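Both lines are given unchanged directly below:

***
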Amino acid sequence: MLTTLAGPIGVVALSGPVDDEHLTRGLEILYANGAVTVLAPNIRSRDGYLAGNDEERLAGLEWVLDQGVHTVLITRGGYGSLRLQHNLPWERILKERIRFVGFSDVSWMLNALAVRGVVQVHGPMVAAGLAKPENFERLRKVLDDDLVGKSLFRFQSKNVVRGGRCSGLALGGNVSMLTACIGQAWEADLSGSVLFIEEVNEPWYRLDRLLTQLAGAGRLRGVNALISGSLHGCGPADGRREWWNEMMLEVAPPDAVVVSGLPFGHAARNDAFPLGVDVTVDTEKGRVLWR
C-alpha cells in the first residue's frame, strides 16, 4: 500500500490530453494499493493538443491543492505545462512544499521547485507508466523515503563513459524541456548538479542540436555528472550507444563523470528518483547513491 501520506494524492493534467484507457489503468493501481485520490476536474478534458485550455488546467491544479493534497501525480506529458509558468501558484506550492511526480513535459517545473528546496520526483505518470507494477513499486519506495542512504541506480562498467566519483544536487529530465527553459523566468541553475537527461522520438541531428544548444548557452558549465537514461524512439538505432556517448563527452565539462543507459525516462521501465536531494555517483562501485 501507499503508506507515504496521511492525506490524499492529487492527480492533475497540466499538459496534453489523456488517453482514457491509460488513465484508468493508472488509477486502478492506485486504488488497488489503498490510495485516496483527488482528481482534477479537467483530467479528461481535451482542447486540441491540451488537456483543457490554460485556465482549466490551472484551475484543476488549484482545486486539487484546495483539498489538502501535498503529493501530486501528473497524468501525462506532451506539451502545455510551460505555458502556465507565469500563472502557477508558485508561492503556495513552495510554502506548502507540494511534491509533484512526473517527467517529460513537466521536467522544467520539477527542477524549478527542486533548486528552491522542495524535493520533487522524476518518475512515471498516472497515464504513462504507473500501471506497470515494477514502476509503481519503485515510486512507492521513493515516496516513502525507503531509498535514503541506498542506491538509486546500479550500473555496470559498460555504462561508464567517463569514470570518477562526484556528488551534487540531483536535477534534470527531458533534454527538449531543459533546452526550452533557456532564458525562461523559472529556469533552474544546473551548476554543481548531477544532471539526469533523457529523450524520446528525436532523430540524431535534433539531439545533437539540443545538447549543443545547452552547452553553447553555458547551461552544462559546472555540472558534476551527466547521467543519461532512455532514448526510446531516437534513431536510427544502429550505433546509438556509441554516438550518444561521444556526444555526451563533447558537451560535458572535462572533469564531469558521464554514465549512460540507466532505466529512467520514456521506456517501459521508468525508475522513479528524487530531484533536489544530494546524490553521489561512484563509477568504481557502479552506483548512484541517495545520500
Q: What stands out?
A: The chain has a mean pLDDT of 95. DSSP finds eight helices and 14 strands in the chain.
